[in-house]
Design brief:
With 128 residues, the protein is of the alpha/beta class. Helices cover 46% and strands 19% of the residues. The structure holds manganese (II) ion.
Length: 128
């Protein structure tokens, strides 16, 4: 069922590697970037099926990167999940306002993480 391409944009090595290992274990293909700028370049070169986006990144933040993905016709329909340690309601509100399609929290809860990814990919298949 897997084989979809998931782009992870996360500057923290430990979080990025754990997310990558889990997704690869589930059979997904993974692309990785340590900055929003690098992630946008990867997404433009090969639009992924889903993006997992950290919010706090060096340079451009995840909020701006999500807006840019939406503004580009090649990636406007790609679901983007915020990968965030913050559970503050105002932060979540800002993330939702920016057009994110969901959240996964850090530190990773393996069951919740996989469930969130699978749910978004399934929803994408049904939509449009
Ligand atoms: Mn970060």
């Amino acid at each position: 069922m897997a084989n979809e391409l998931i782009l992870i944009v996360e500057d923290n090595d430990k979080n990025r590697k754990l997310a990558r290992d889990l997704l690869q274990f589930k059979g997904y293909r993974v692309a990785e970037a340590e900055s929003a700028e690098a992630g946008l370049a990867l997404a433009a070169a090969q639009p992924p099926d889903l993006v997992l986006m950290d919010i706090h990144l060096p340079g451009m933040d995840g909020i701006e990167a999500r807006k840019r993905l939406r503004a580009d016709p090649a990636t406007s329909a790609v679901p983007v999940i915020a990968f965030t340690a913050s559970v503050m309601p105002q932060d979540r509100h800002q993330i939702t306002e920016a057009g994110f399609d969901g959240f996964v929290s850090k530190p990773i809860n393996i069951k919740e993480f996989i469930a969130a990814i699978e749910e978004k990919l399934a929803a994408r298949g049904k939509a449009a």
